[in-house]
Every structure is written in C-alpha cells, then in structure tokens.
Amino acid sequence: MLALAGVFLLPDLAAAETITVQVTKLAFVPAAITAKVGDTVEWVNKDFVAHTATATDKGFDVKLPAGKTGSVTVTKAGTIPYFCRFHPMMKGAIEVKE
Fold first, then answer.
1. How many CB atoms are closer than 10 A to CB 1?
2. Is residue 90 helix, strand or coil?
3. Confidence (pTM)
C-alpha cells in the first residue's frame, strides 16, 4: 500500500481481460484457453448454425445464435470443460487461474 499526502492508495490490481473464442466450422478456436478469475470469455459464432458453450458441470450455458456472441465471467479457479449441446463433438476447456 502506498501513502501520498495522507491518502492511502490500494495496490494495483490486475485488470480483468476478455478472451475471445471463435466458433467456426463446428469447432471452438482455440479449443483450450487460460483465463484468470474475473476474466470474461466471449464466444463469437461465425457459423451459419446456432451453438452453445455449455459447461459440463452445468455452471454456464451460453446460447450462441448464428452470427452472434455470448460471454461468461469466470469466478473461481480450476478447469472448466465445455461443449456444444447441439453438436456434442465440439469441445473446449477453460483453465482458470487465481
């Protein structure tokens, strides 16, 4: 902590980021990503059909209509495998670090 003329400043906290995953040709690209707690993962559906990004533990279920985006903010550390409910062969994973 820093003090300046009697004012206490909080230490710099790392700013949350947005990590983008493309949904194209029936695949999540990249399929595996790393994020920090508080980051947002955004999926951009470039396909002509709808998809989802659904956590296998049911922690999130993001609907992705054709040509649209969807997102989720990750709130705890760990690995989150996910898939598309409409196309179960589409799989991805988010490794969330503190």
1. 6
2. coil
3. 0.85
